[in-house]
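Hi all, posting the design record for the shared folder.

TITLE: backbone redesign
STEP: 1 of 1
STRUCTURE INPUT:
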């Protein structure tokens, strides 16, 4: 009897499942996972996707693609702003004028743009990463510090630019008062051709660093802590842990920060208009400010459009090169 029971039990274990038995989840899982990509692919290929995105595409086409194409068109004309029908086609003459001697010149303005962009990218990336490393720990004080760091980015550029003009005032500004209290040499700040651009960079870093700090905090939140612990067990000091463990894992975030900072810096206009108006002696006349001056002050719309096209090409080139460099670095680190 005992032998029959054992045999019956064994046959039950290896025999086929009854017709009414439920299919195990382990067997149903792969089939469901195989059906999911097909369903996603059908949704992406469905005409309903284009229908849902049509309003956004329409707005983007009307307010971005259309004006961009029209700017390309205007750049080939000596444009008559009051009567466009009287505009005269000049071909590439506006682009050849870029390299002619003028005040302010295109090359000088391009150098000022690169100067500002380099200061924002290098200073902003290093400063925001350092602040993010300090704020990555939790706690009420750290949480309040995160809000304080991000708060300047939420303020309007026009209002805060005017406030910083008073801070940089050489007679009664806060900046010179602090330097004088510390027995350090004061500066003319925005009234000095040498210090005008650094002054605007200081303000721009104060205003923009809060956003990039949040990006780095997001990157630090998803990196693997086990690698850092292993490095500390192996005897790595904090700098070695950062350079060989933390920094390689932050390269995608860093690449994104560099790209958006470069684009925003090349397009920056409001702070130059409010704080220095391109001066003194054209020391802060960037490409974006030169576009405004030529197109809307001097009403040389065709030349201003050619400057805008060149600025667009520079931004596109910087973005493409940085993305390729970032992809190469990520692939090499992987």
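Okay, here is what came back for every position:
SEQUENCE:
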């Amino acid at each position: 009897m005992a032998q029959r029971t054992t045999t019956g039990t064994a046959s039950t274990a290896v025999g086929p499942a009854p017709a009414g038995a439920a299919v195990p989840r382990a067997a149903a899982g792969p089939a469901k996972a195989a059906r999911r990509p097909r369903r996603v692919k059908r949704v992406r290929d469905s005409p309903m996707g284009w229908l849902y995105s049509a309003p956004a595409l329409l707005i983007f086409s009307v307010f971005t693609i259309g004006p961009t194409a029209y700017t390309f068109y205007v750049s080939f004309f000596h444009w008559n702003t009051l009567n466009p029908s009287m505009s005269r086609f000049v071909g590439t003459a506006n682009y050849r004028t870029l390299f002619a001697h003028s005040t302010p010149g295109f090359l000088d303005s391009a150098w000022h743009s690169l100067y500002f962009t380099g200061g924002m990218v290098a200073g902003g990336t290093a400063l925001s990463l350092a602040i993010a490393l300090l704020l990555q720990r939790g706690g009420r004080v750290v949480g309040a510090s995160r809000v304080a760091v991000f708060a300047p980015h939420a303020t309007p550029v026009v209002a805060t630019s005017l406030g910083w003009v008073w801070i940089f005032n050489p007679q009664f500004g806060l900046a010179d008062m602090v330097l004088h209290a510390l027995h350090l040499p004061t500066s003319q700040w925005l009234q000095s051709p040498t210090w005008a651009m650094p002054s605007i960079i200081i303000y721009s870093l104060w205003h923009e660093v809060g956003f990039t700090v949040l990006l780095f905090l997001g990157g630090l939140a998803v990196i693997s802590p086990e690698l850092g612990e292993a490095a500390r067990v192996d005897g790595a000091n904090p700098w070695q842990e950062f350079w060989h463990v933390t920094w390689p894992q932050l390269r995608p975030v860093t690449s994104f920060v560099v790209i958006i900072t470069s684009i925003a810096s090349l397009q920056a206009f409001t702070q130059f208009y409010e704080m220095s108006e391109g001066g003194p002696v054209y020391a802060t006349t960037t490409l974006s400010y030169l576009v405004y001056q030529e197109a809307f002050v001097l009403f040389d719309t065709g030349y201003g459009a050619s400057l805008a096209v060149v600025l667009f090409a520079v931004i596109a080139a910087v973005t493409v090169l940085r993305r390729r460099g970032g992809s190469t670095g990520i692939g090499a680190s992987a």
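COMMENT: Confidence is low (pLDDT under 50) at residues 1-15, 19-28, 328-334.
Let me know if anyone wants the other runs.
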